[in-house]
## 1
Amino acid sequence: MSAGGEPDGQKGAAGPAGGRLVVVGLGPGEARFLTPQAAAALAEAEALYGYGPYLDRVPLRPGQARLASDNREELGRARAALAHAAAGSRVAVVSGGDPGVFAMAAAVMEAIEAGPAEWRALDVEVVPGVTAMLAVAAAAGAPLGHDFCAMSLSDNLKPFELVEKRLRLAAEAGLVMAFYNPVSKARPWQLDRAFDILRGLLPASVPVIFGRAAGRPDARTVIVPLAAARADLADMATCIIVGSAETRRIERPGRPPLVYAPRAVRGAAGGAS
Ligand SMILES: C[S@@+](CC[C@H](N)C(=O)[O-])C[C@H]1O[C@@H](n2cnc3c(N)ncnc32)[C@H](O)[C@@H]1O
């Protein structure tokens, strides 16, 4: 179903005022990661809203309005896009990766919930994309082959004490962890603090994957043991995957290692399907 309640595979009719809002995931980088569904939604839109560098990735179509805004203005951008759609236009809001993963789809939902009734009558659709975690995992092997969780390490929208608590509980539960927003100029110490917490709970040999600019020409994957994991291996274009005690690293002659999570937990009866 789309968020507008329409059956899968059917394109939504425009809302009562003729407007339509689609939230589109662009994938992690190059156009080859853009799904055909996302490309079609972008081509149909009369107006595109998004963070400037993401809008720059969308092929230009004559007559299509582009409304770029700052990365920190997610709610304002969502409101502006909804108001534009409510006036009768076909509007797309773009996100890098998947729009539902630490991105614009939730901001649009927040705006709809708190906004005027006419926004709840709009046709709204979320078009998924390849999220950074999946592109980084694929570049390293299969580190998400068993149970995992994803967290934003940013404490802009939650206290860092909550991040610390979730790290401890995830480690205790044996989950592989993917970290988004791992570090920034305004948050210089939090990632090293996270590694320190995990070093107290997990084996020192657990592989940590630093995937930078996945799916882009300058993509880089660095894999180190948890004992050697440091914040200066990451920046805001990095997604980090921290393995669990079950995670395996296969060394290969002349090739990068493969990191994977076996499908079954050691000692578990039966196999994973
Ligand atoms: C605000 S979140 C947006 C996530 C995005 N919606 C997604 O699904 O990938 C931004 C964070 O995503 C991660 N990220 C986004 N693109 C990436 C890429 N191409 N390679 C590695 N990490 C990326 C980084 O952790 C970055 O700090």
Note: Residues 1-14 have pLDDT under 50 and may be disordered.
## 2
Amino acid sequence: MKLVATKSITEGTELAKTIYSDNGQVLIKKDIKLTKRMLKRLHQLGITYVYIKDAFTEDIIVNPPISEELRIEAIQMVKTSFKDFQDNKVKSNGYLLEKTGTKMTEMVSNIVSEVKNRDEVLSILSDILISDDYIFSHSINVTIYSLALATELGLPNKQIHQIGLGAMLHDVGKVFIPEPILNKTARLTNHEFDIIKSHSEEGFNFLRKSSNIPLLVAHCAFQHHERLDGSGYPRGLTDKDIHPYGKLMAIADVFDAVTSNRVYRDAMLPHEGLEILYAGSGTLFDTKMLEAFRKTVAIYPNGISVDLSNGSTGIVVRQNKNLNDRPVVRIMEENGEQVSPHDIDLATHLNLMITNCDIASGNKV
Ligand SMILES: [Fe+2]
């Protein structure tokens, strides 16, 4: 399979992956030849790229970071819990939060075991899942990234689980922000922005009331927008005062935010997301953690198009786990001329560099 821009695909193209809604309903099934109506639907849903079947890339596999079933179940659970919190059933009644904390802890354990058992770098691009509400899929993506980073850092199991729960709940304070402000696509006024920013503290105050949610989990909500140089919020803490969980979550949160499709802009690709993070290395984000994070994500995910420094163009076939910026590439063109496809392992061709990475358009590489 390969990744192509939705706007460039034509009728009759076959999808290589099923597209689900966030409640697990199949929107467009894989292997079906796309009709004009389905193409229109993809545009309406804001899906900017899809995996398609293609004779030259049939053997390219894209593994989701966790199983589709678990991911859908997790998103649903966050959705139901956050809605319950919003309905205020819990603010006055700690019982629901206790119950939810227990359910979420179990869910985190399931995600931890799937993330730990994978032998590959993470590629959330592989899950093109539609979400009518960004916050729920964002909470799960941040959980997956945080757990992968915590594992890479070699943290003890207990801390990994706390981080997972903290990630799942890091934005819980947003349920107390009025929806018209939260979902506003136009430029926010300073006052509205201050209201949005209050979600960190709101989340903290909400979570710390629960006896079965560790205080450090509540601090993930409190500190995920703090930055090393003190430019973050709500308290403008600096490096030494920010808890490691807060530093870790900042990385996972920003990476998912910039690599996800939002109403106001298209998703960046992973290598662009990493560039954003690296621009803040040591000033906004912890350098050591960034290095570890870089090792956990697929910088050039399978199925993506890349240009190489020798003038050839190809599709990423598979990852090299310890050299995740040097994948195996199937060369399709050399200096603009089509060639018979052949694979080059960039881990052993150190003279070659990736000079560009993009989503292919249509049937062209
Ligand atoms: Fe946030």
Note: Residues 76-294 form a domain with the Hypothetical protein af1432 fold (CATH 1.10.3210.10).
